[in-house]
Every structure is written in structure tokens, then in C-alpha cells.
Specification:
Distance between the termini: 44 Å
CATH architecture of the largest domain: 3-Layer(aba) Sandwich
Order of helices and strands: EHEHEHHEHHHEHEEHHEHE
Number of helices: 11
Radius of gyration: 20 Å
CATH class of the largest domain: Alpha Beta
Structural class: alpha/beta
Strand content: 15-25%
CATH superfamily of the largest domain: P-loop containing nucleotide triphosphate hydrolases
Number of strands: 9
Number of domains: 2
Helix content: 40-55%
Shape: globular
Largest sheet: 5 strands, parallel
Length: about 280
């Protein structure tokens, strides 16, 4: 049995992750008290269930400290469970919770921000041991779904990766395993006929990839990533996020991310490409 523990911050998108995993064939149980985990796994194991997701949050509070011992109790069924931690910045969670007018579990009668910070402290150990951390601060629901499908759908390989373009002016993806900076390349923004286009257009892509240093960088990046990926597989890591950034996330990073993703797929890796900041400029 494969077991994924879905946890993280309230308001960061745990439920959206759970629904997406259900859509790709996982048996997902939401808001399970951690103490019930061994009984659930034994029951599902005897029923022949092979892929299970369990959503855990801080409402069980004290039970979170029992998770390491609970994992030991279910080792015969699942081996080493994977932990998927979903987070967002305090400011983003405040905005989302205020729009939904719902308190966070640890808020009580105090300010919303205090409840968020208490929850972050309480789940810090889970985040530190997570196999995959997804920062949803700047992700649309469709981008989040794409990341989860890439990581947990049936056609995933030993190592799956997401190549995500972004703009440094909107912040570096906090969950990126590797960040590549494309700001050394000439910027199409300063070419009038290219300014309104994006890196997905043929004209911008041809412009960016036409520079010799872009081709040199891509060849070296592909070689470097292949070496790193081998190490990740040996260490049991199966989901990798490669961030490819430029100033605004519209031209250079988009074109280079598309090309890098294509090269990785041609090399036999399962690589999907997302563009975090397209349309935000």
C-alpha cells in the first residue's frame, strides 16, 4: 500500500489536494484523528486498497506528537509513508480566511494571525520531515491540481518533476528544490514587437533560444539536473520542482522552461511545465 499524509496549513489548499488525489484514483480520508490511522490502514489493507491519502490537521492537536509511533505501527502495511505538506504565506492565508469568514482551528477568540502562527509552529516538525512541500501562495487552483496530478497520477515514473517559470518580482517559489535564474539573457521586453507577446509564442522563443549562451546554459542545466535526479532517486525523493525565473515571469523564463521541459522529456523523464506568473504582469 502507498500512503500519503496530506497536511499543512489551514487555508493553504489541503482539501483541493485531497479532491485532486481522489480524481486520480486515490482513496482519501479527510480529517482523520491520527490515533485512528493504524485501524484505518489495517482495514483498507485487508480490503486490498493500494493507494491511500489521509488528511491530518491540527484539530487533533496532541495526537500530532504520536505520528512517529503511529507510522511504526503501520509499517507492515505501508513501509515508509510519504508526507505532503501544503502551505502559503501568512498574508495569503489571512486574505483567504477573511474572504471565507472562517476562523482557523487554533484561533480561538484571538486574532486570526496568532492562530495561523500557532498552527505553523505546531506543524513545523511535519514540514521538516515532508517528502513534498507545496507553496500555494501564488498558484491558481488549476496549477495546484496540475502539480498534484504530475506527482500522484498512475502514469508517474520513479521521479516526476515540474518545471515552473516565475517572475522574481513576484517572489521565488518557496517550495522549489532548484532555482535557475534567466536574467542573464537579453530581455525581449525591450524589443517593441515582442513586448506584448509571451515566451510561449514562437517569436519570443526563437529570440530567447537564439542566443548561444541560452543553448550553452540549457545543455549544462540538463547535464546538471540529470546528475541531481540520480541522487534524488537514490535518496527516495520522487517529486522535484525546478524553478526557472526571470524578472516578470513572462518572456525568458517561460521560453527556457518550455525548452528545458521538452529536453527532459526527450531524455526519458516525466516532466510537466507550469507558468506561475503568466497573466499577472
Amino acid at each position: 500500500m502507498e500512503l500519503v499524509i496530506i497536511t499543512g496549513m489551514s487555508g493553504a489548499g489541503r482539501r483541493s489536494v485531497a479532491h485532486t488525489m481522489e480524481d486520480v484514483g486515490w482513496y482519501v480520508v479527510d480529517n482523520l484523528p491520527p490515533a485512528m490511522l493504524p485501524s484505518l490502514i489495517r482495514y483498507l489493507g485487508e480490503a486490498g486498497t493500494t493507494k491511500v491519502g489521509v488528511v491530518l490537521d491540527v484539530r487533533s492537536r496532541g495526537d500530532l506528537e504520536q505520528i512517529p509511533s503511529l507510522f511504526a505501527q503501520i509499517a507492515e502495511w505501508v513501509g515508509s509513508p510519504h508526507i505532503l505538506y501544503v502551505e502559503a504565506t501568512d498574508a495569503e492565508i489571512v486574505k483567504r480566511q477573511e474572504s471565507s469568514r472562517r476562523p482557523v482551528p487554533l484561533q480561538g477568540t484571538g486574532p486570526l494571525l496568532e492562530g495561523i502562527r500557532a498552527e505553523r509552529r505546531m506543524t513545523s516538525a511535519l514540514r521538516a520531515s515532508a517528502d513534498m512541500v507545496v507553496d500555494t501562495t501564488n498558484l491558481t487552483i488549476h496549477q495546484l491540481q496540475a502539480r498534484i496530478v504530475a506527482a500522484y497520477s498512475d502514469d508517474q515514473q520513479d521521479l516526476t518533476m515540474t518545471v515552473m517559470s516565475f517572475g522574481f518580482k513576484n517572489g521565488v517559489p518557496l517550495d522549489a528544490d532548484i532555482v535557475l535564474d534567466m536574467r542573464f539573457l537579453p530581455n525581449p521586453h525591450w524589443v517593441p514587437e515582442l513586448r506584448q507577446q509571451t515566451g510561449q509564442s514562437r517569436a519570443v522563443s526563437t529570440y530567447v533560444l537564439g542566443f548561444e549562451m541560452a543553448q550553452t546554459f540549457l545543455a549544462q542545466a540538463e547535464k546538471l539536473l540529470s546528475t541531481v535526479f540520480l541522487g534524488y532517486v537514490e535518496e527516495g525523493k520522487r517529486n522535484v520542482l525546478v524553478g526557472v525565473g526571470c524578472t516578470g515571469g513572462k518572456h525568458r523564463s517561460v521560453a527556457m522552461a518550455e525548452e528545458l521541459g521538452a529536453r527532459l522529456r526527450a531524455a526519458g523523464y516525466g516532466a510537466s511545465v507550469l507558468h506561475r506568473d503568466l497573466g499577472r504582469e
